Amino acid sequence: MTVWRRQPKVELHLHLEGAAPPDFIRALAAEQGTDLVGVFDEAGAYAWTDFADFLKVYEAASSVLRAADDYRRLVEAVLAKSAADGVIYTEIFLAPDLRRDDDTAAWRDHLAAMTEGARNARAAHGIEARFIPIAIRHLGPERAEATARLTAETAGGLVTGFGMAGEEGFGEPADYARAFAIAAEAGLGLTVHAGELLGAESVRAALDALPVSRIGHGVRAIEDPDLVRRLAAEGIVLEVNPGSNLALGLFPSWRDHPIEPLRAAGVAVTISTDDPPYFHTDLPREYAALAWTFDWTAADFDGMNRAAAAAAFCDEATRAAILARLTGETP
Ligand code: ADE
Ligand code: ZN
């Protein structure tokens, strides 16, 4: 338990399926009589070796999430944990494609259940949540466009954004321009994963092709000083997940993580956890490691939380309420 648990936090980058506690997935698998071979290690944690294997294990574990009520319970469990870690506002990525289900009516049922879960969590813990459905890049542009249409049809309520994750090397960002145009037309906030497994060029290509205000990760922009200057000048917000990056081997140590030089160069960096149980992390642990490594104080983190609130895909009244709850007090 770290002192960083108490500081109010804003998290912009958290995958619902990736935040599922292993026990939650194991219990559902047992109920269904599903044998999740190769998903867990002997200690019961998620077991994966590299990024490709991570995606495989992730999809296998997610396959036991089926009924609408599974999703309600998962949203409640994830938000209870976030609230306990000091999060006051969070944006959760949802992947309709992991359900292998094109049916808009079924998705509406699931969304209604997840919305109920979020409302229950708000009542119980005071945490505010928004949903960002995402396309999965390696399923291709047509699938992404279908997901964007589904998201546009279900926009409003807690659905306020659209994004894309998955295999960064699959196709070019421009292949997904139509999907993002559909979401933009619906008034959704836009973010895309880039500059995680691939280098600075992937961030530049994403910014050139897609009308996003935020980049998921984007940390490998550090390889190109011109691009770093562009991020700062255009006010592009990075959803940085340091523990995830270290677990996936992007950088050898906390000291080598580029979040500090990016910040020093004037880039708006924010801190999130991506898929916390997969990477053995949570937000207080991220804060503790960053504070230790870079001598960051509560006031530094408060500045990043304010940047996150400014970049949040929410209405202005909600943004003002979040800002009012942020404090830079030392825990
Ligand atoms: N889906 C879930 N986590 C992801 C990550 N870190 N990168 C790309 N796709 C993901
Ligand atoms: Zn992610």
Summary of the model, kept short:
This protein is an alpha/beta fold and 331 residues long. It contains 13 helices and eight strands.
Topology order in helix (H) and strand (E) letters: EHHHEHEHEHEHEHEHHEHHH
DSSP helical segment count: 13
Give start-end ranges of low-pLDDT stretches. Answer: none
Average predicted confidence as pLDDT: 96
User: By CATH's scheme, which homologous superfamily applies?
Assistant: Metal-dependent hydrolases
What ligand species are in this complex?
adenine, zinc ion
Query: Based on DSSP secondary structure assignment, what is the total number of beta strands?
Result: 8
Judging from the principal axes of the Cα atoms, what is the shape?
globular
CATH topology group: TIM Barrel
CATH class bucket: Alpha Beta
Structure commentary:
This protein is α/β, with parallel strands linked by helices. It has a single domain (9-326), classed as Metal-dependent hydrolases (TIM Barrel), CATH 3.20.20. Helix content is 46%, strand content 14%. It is built from 13 helices and eight strands. The protein has helices at 22-32, 51-62, 68-84, 104-125, 141-153, 177-185, 200-209, 225-234, 242-247, 259-264, 283-294, 298-311, 316-325; strands at 9-15, 87-94, 128-136, 161-165, 189-194, 214-217, 237-240, 268-271. The protein has an eight-stranded parallel sheet with strand order 1-2-3-4-5-6-7-8. Helix 8 links the parallel strand 6 and strand 7. Helix 3 packs parallel to helix 4 (104-125). The protein is globular and about 50 Å long. The chain starts with 8 loop residues before the first strand and ends in a 6-residue tail after the last helix. Bound molecules: adenine and zinc ion (ZN). The site of adenine has 9 residues, from loops.
